[in-house]
Design brief:
It contains one helix and three strands; from the N terminus they run E-H-E-E. The protein is an alpha+beta fold. The protein has a three-stranded antiparallel β-sheet with strand order 1-3-2.
Length: 68
Amino acid sequence: MSVYRVIDVIGTSASSWEEAAAEAIGTASGSLHDLRVAEVTKQDVVVGEDGTLLYRTRIQLSFKYQPE
């Protein structure tokens, strides 16, 4: 039997939502182990004053719970 935790993470990218999602997962994998499922829950774009775009992807990320 296994237990999983779910957290929200947000990744950002100057080029795409997919890259923002990959950034969020890649960064989270540095401190979380046994990642299982990533579900995109929200995507948006921030428009800077100079017209630049910042893509943001919010992900619910599940990983296997390891008691301390």
